Amino acid sequence: MKLEAIAHVRTCYGEKFGVPRQSGIVDEAWGELIFTPEFRDPDALRGLEDFSHLWLVFLFHQAIRTDWKPTVRPPRLGGNKRVGVFASRSPFRPNPIGLSVVRLESIDTTHPEGPMIKLRGVDLVDGTPIIDIKPYIPYADALPEAAAGFAPHAPEKLSVHWINNADQGLSDTSRAVIEATIAIDPRPAYQDDASRTYGCLIDGYNIQWKVRDKQIHILSCQG
Amino acid sequence: MKLEAIAHVRTCYGEKFGVPRQSGIVDEAWGELIFTPEFRDPDALRGLEDFSHLWLVFLFHQAIRTDWKPTVRPPRLGGNKRVGVFASRSPFRPNPIGLSVVRLESIDTTHPEGPMIKLRGVDLVDGTPIIDIKPYIPYADALPEAAAGFAPHAPEKLSVHWINNADQGLSDTSRAVIEATIAIDPRPAYQDDASRTYGCLIDGYNIQWKVRDKQIHILSCQG
Hints:
The structure is a homodimer. Chain A is mainly β. Chain A is built from two helices and twelve strands, in the order ββββββββαβαβββ. The radius of gyration of chain A is 18 Å and the shape is globular. The model of chain A has no long low-confidence stretch (mean pLDDT 94). At the A-B interface, β3, β5, β6, β8 and α1 of A face β3, β5, β6, β8 and α1 of B. Chains A, B: Residues 3-145 form the TsaA-like domain.
């Protein structure tokens, strides 16, 4: 079965490191879905505006491998315990397909590459190819009582501190998405080295931070 | 991007007509997931037993077309109103990929083609190719308050009556899955012809029924 990308997303996440591990955790995380020219048809979205959330079926395009491994080490478990690949949402899977539910903010039909769908709560790296979009149907899809093995809760949020006015000149929206993203601590859980500086690219800014005693210290933010 | 089936499901639904339009509506609907030989590795399922529900990403193998149409007519809307294909869960999509959350009943590691996963609540026709299995993670996937356009509620359940002891000799489990499936009224919503006999294949039985005044009358059930 051969699939084609119907769209790509532009997102606030310029690289894999820092991308939230599930969708919806960082509502500030924005995305813009741009259809491949063949699929730029407003009719294909008719009625979509009556749904608040969408499923994106996408390709883990930065995780494509030719072999497959039966187990993975989820960062959630400290990176040192193995679980089955089908018991995880790891990008390294036999078919590198991902699944995210995102909030539909608006549909811009006047965009030059439109219709363009504005999204919130994304957990996708910039440029991710989208292979399907489906409406979220709560009567079928929402199972709040489901038992969830090793991932029963959303990640804890750490407090975020900007050091030496590192946030100077940032817009409120950039500050919000940066803080919310770093607060959930992108580090692999097995790393807890207060001296280590981490970096990632969010909303066009190169962010550098350290973590000590469950406090995030953002050291710099270069646009 | 080329995908391969990692598994297939055997289900109680011998043909497309009669298959529930979403997963979970008919909990009695059973499935058995059999991996393709290359993927028959119990390690790939390690930890899966701690999750109550799974996502199946599958191919709508009976709905594959070479062209695509921007709109579809959901049976839910009486089959006479068009909505965008991306605002629907129709099988006729640019990439014929489906998404269902099913209940994990058990994993049979002693099955000759094992590990075999026993499922409940399926909405898949027998033989559906599976391209991915993911654990259901309620903190990310469960959004009971999401707004759901034209499909805000599960379908209404009609009352089911067996005519002339048509259920004679049926096992309790077969009777349960047949009743629960026909109760949600597989007919396209634009058909309401009390004289018409419908038929489909459930759990190995060829079922024939009529619908009058929101009552299902099962006329025959041939094993």
